Amino acid sequence: MHKILAVATPLACWLVGGGAAWADEGRFPRLDVVIPIEIQDDFAFESDDPAAELNDLYATIEPEVTLHFNSAISLVAGFVFEPVQDPGPREDRVFEDQGLYAEQVFLSYAGEGFGLQAGKFNPAFGMAWDRAPGLYGTDFAEDYELTERVGLGGSIEWGNEDRGLHTLSVATFFADTTFLSESVFQDRGRTRIGSGGVSNTEDFSSVAVSLDSEAVAGLGGMGYTLGFVHQQGGRGDPEDETGFVAGLFKSVALSNGASIEPVLEWAHFENAGGAQLDRDYLTLGAGWMNGPWNAALSATGRFSDANAAGVAGDDDTLVQLSGGYGFSNGVTLDVGYRFSEEANLETHIVGALLTYELGFTLPR
Predict the structure, then answer these.
(1) Which of 356, 363, 361, 331 is nearest to 9 (CA)?
(2) Which of 231, 260, 276, 224 is nearest to 245 (CA)?
(3) How far separated are the first and last CA of the chain, in Å rounded?
(4) Which of 27, 129, 149, 163 has the fewest CB atoms within 10 Å, measured from its CB?
(5) Which of 160, 138, 292 has the alpha carbon at shortest distance from 214?
(6) Residues spanned by the domain of 231
(7) Residues 92-132: pLDDT tens digits?
(8) How far apart are CA 121 and CA 108, in angstroms?
(9) What pTM was computed for the model?
(10) How many domains does the chain fold into?
């Protein structure tokens, strides 16, 4: 059943949205739908942990639906269809354990130079979990991506295209413990307050602040992110987590129409995950593009300091090399190699990724 759904879902999306024409953006009410589709295969062919040697073929489909009531007020719903359980030891998978859940469901207000959000959304903090280049470049940085939080958020924007547009975002939130934390097709279980975990408090005691820009003339056209997060410890957590992040990125034009996009980000967490353990992440990478071709090299270090009990933390490493080609029909194929050392265990993975994006508007 899961295999049928994984194949049928993108096919149905193609039939519904593939040839749809975009409507007048000034027409209200209006429904905008965007559906990124990924089919990925990861083959762990060698590992110090024999249980990790397996092949995993899976889909990641992330429909985002935006209902615009008028030019200012919208309802946004973002869903994720992906594996919601880890594979068993040495257990190859083919489109198994796939579940669908709501990652975001919130009301948005967009005013003149400011915006407001209320509901379940992803507070802004960091960018390497999204911008780190390559097939596996984001894997470690996704540890600190803030997702599935219930709360209130606001942002203000200033500047211009010449000096750079800057956005200051502030959010107060807690981890989702409603029925929206469950999944269908494959149940991942509901988040309960008794499970603990930072920001799992059911009150507005956690906060994130982020200052971002895509390009600043005074920085040579570089973009940046600066962020702060404080997440209240949940039940059983000995400490609250406090984090800081700083990152830079830029697109540099080369000869013959090619370009290179370097990315650098550092993130520091005191009492990471509510434990008495400090953790740092350093991500460095660069992506190269030339027409339909791309290539990327990136590395991330994850460094943990000894905690208050004197237990030493592990220093983990991730290095990846990948490349791909974008076809004229909108499909992109990437292949890559991933080396990681986690908890002193080395693992080697080769993989391939097919991506495609659909979009349509109603009324057409």
Answers:
(1) 356
(2) 224
(3) 33
(4) 27
(5) 160
(6) 2-362
(7) 999 999 999 999 999 999 999 999 999 999 999 999 999 99
(8) 10
(9) 0.91
(10) 1
